[in-house]
Amino acid sequence: MSFENLAFILKNYVKQGYKNILVNDLQDFRIEQIPKKFLKYNYVIISLIVKDDDELKNRILGERDSGFKDIKTALSWNKKIIKRKNLKNEFKVDNTQSNPIKTVNTILEIIKEKKL
């Protein structure tokens, strides 16, 4: 029910004139629903991926004081996203090098190209 509520809220934001609404931390099965739920809307999906398993493990174990720490599940999710065909308006951005400025600039270029 919470995803349905989120979709309603997002559509209401658009109705009220809001633009560039960011949503994060959705599980992949929810991301796969976006093209159907927002068929008539202008959106882009940015999926951050890490192409090096050891790097992802290090981030989960080393950089997080709390939160999600299930390495096996994280690696599985990451691999699934990498392997699956891009969804409509989805762009996968490799964040392996963990350069925040480069990652942000890549995302901004995608948004600029999509004219959002």
Question: What is the chain-wise order of helices and strands?
Answer: HHHEHHEH
- Report helical residue fraction: 40-55%
Segments where pLDDT lies below 50 for 5+ residues? none
Please state the CA-atom Rg, rounded to the nearest Å. 15 Å
Domain count: the total is 1
| DSSP strand content | 5-15%
Rounded mean pLDDT score: 92
Q: Output the strand order for the largest sheet.
A: 1-2
Class based on secondary structure composition and strand pairing: mainly alpha
Name the overall outline.
globular
With helices defined by DSSP (H or I, 4 residues minimum), what is the helix count?
6
Major sheet attributes: 2 strands, parallel
Number of strands: 2
How far is the first residue's CA from the last residue's CA?
A: 28 Å
Walk me through the structure.
The chain has 116 residues and is mostly helical. The chain has six helices and two strands.
Overview in brief:
With 116 residues, the protein is mainly alpha-helical. It has one domain (24-114). Helices cover 52% and strands 9% of the residues.
Label this structure with key terms.
globular; 6 helices; 52% helix
Annotate the secondary structure layout:
Layout: H1 2-15, H2 28-31, H3 34-37, E1 45-49, H4 53-62, H5 71-83, E2 90-94, H6 100-114
Parallel strand pairs: 1-2
